[in-house]
C-alpha cells in the first residue's frame, strides 16, 4: 500500500510553511525503514486528555478558510499521537518524535493521496455577500477513516518536521 500523501494543494499556508511526517515502517530501531508519509502546509499540535491518559493531535486545516455547514474550520488531516517529544529547533525548523496512537481509530482522519474535498466545495450561501469562503459538502469536515491505512500505521514511530518553505 502506498501511504504517501502530499496535501499541500489543500492545506492552509503551504506557500509559507512546510510540515513533513516520516514514518518508520520496520522495527523501532531500524532507521532504514523510514519513509515519507505526509507533506502539508501549516500544522497544529495540541495536547488532549489528562495526566492518566494524555495524547496529542497533529492537524492541518483546509485552505481558503473552508468550513463545514456549521462554519467550523474543515480539516485536511487529523492524526492522533500517543507520545510526542520535542527534539530541537534549528534555522526556524522544529523536529518532534511521536508514535501514532494505536488505540484511537475514531480520531484517525488521515487521507490517502488524491483526497480533495475542495473540488466539491461551494461558496457559503450565508457569507457570499460579506466574507465569501468555501463550504465543503456534508461529511467532509474531516477526511474519511481509511481502515487499511490505519492498520498499516497504528503504533508506528513518526518524525514530524515543522518548517518554512525555502526560497529558491
List keywords for this structure.
single chain; mainly beta; 1 helix; globular; 168 residues; eight-stranded mixed sheet; two-stranded antiparallel ribbon
Task: Give the domain tally.
Answer: 1
Shape descriptor: globular
What is the count of DSSP helices, taking H or I runs of 4+ residues?
Answer: 1
Question: Percent range for helical residues?
Answer: under 10%
Helix/strand-derived class? mainly beta
Largest sheet: 8 strands, mixed
CA-based gyration radius: 16 Å
How many DSSP E strands? 10
Order of H and E elements: EEEEEEEEEHE
Task: Report the mean per-residue pLDDT as an integer.
Answer: 93
Summarize the structure.
This protein is mainly beta. The chain is built from 1 helix and 10 strands; from the N terminus they run E-E-E-E-E-E-E-E-E-H-E.
Write the layout of secondary structure elements.
Elements: E1 5-6, E2 17-24, E3 34-40, E4 44-48, E5 55-61, E6 75-90, E7 93-100, E8 122-123, E9 134-135, H1 147-153, E10 157-164
Parallel strand pairs: 1-3
Antiparallel strand pairs: 2-3, 2-10, 4-5, 5-6, 6-7, 7-10, 8-9
Explain what you see.
The chain has 168 residues and is mostly beta strands. It has one domain (5-164). Helices cover 4% and strands 39% of the residues. The chain is built from one helix and ten strands, in the order E-E-E-E-E-E-E-E-E-H-E. The strands form two sheets. It has an eight-stranded mixed sheet, with no helix packed on it. The N and C termini lie far apart (33 Å). The relative contact order is 0.25.
Amino acid at each position: 500500500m502506498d501511504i504517501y500523501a502530499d496535501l499541500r494543494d489543500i492545506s492552509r499556508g503551504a506557500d509559507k510553511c512546510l510540515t513533513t511526517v516520516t514514518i518508520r515502517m520496520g522495527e523501532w530501531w531500524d532507521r532504514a525503514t523510514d519513509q515519507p508519509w505526509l507533506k502539508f502546509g501549516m500544522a497544529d499540535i495540541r495536547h488532549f486528555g489528562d495526566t492518566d491518559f494524555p495524547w496529542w493531535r497533529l492537524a492541518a486545516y483546509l485552505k481558503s478558510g473552508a468550513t463545514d455547514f456549521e462554519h467550523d474550520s474543515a480539516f485536511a488531516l487529523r492524526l492522533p499521537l500517543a507520545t510526542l517529544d520535542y527534539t530541537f529547533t534549528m534555522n526556524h525548523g522544529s523536529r518532534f518524535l511521536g508514535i501514532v496512537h494505536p488505540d484511537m481509530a475514531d480520531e484517525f482522519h488521515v487521507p490517502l493521496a488524491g483526497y480533495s474535498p475542495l473540488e466539491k466545495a461551494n461558496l457559503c450561501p450565508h457569507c457570499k455577500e460579506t466574507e465569501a469562503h468555501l463550504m465543503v459538502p456534508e461529511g467532509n469536515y474531516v477526511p474519511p477513516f481509511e481502515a487499511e491505512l490505519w492498520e498499516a500505521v497504528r503504533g508506528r514511530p513518526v518524525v514530524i518536521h515543522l518548517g518554512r518553505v525555502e526560497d529558491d
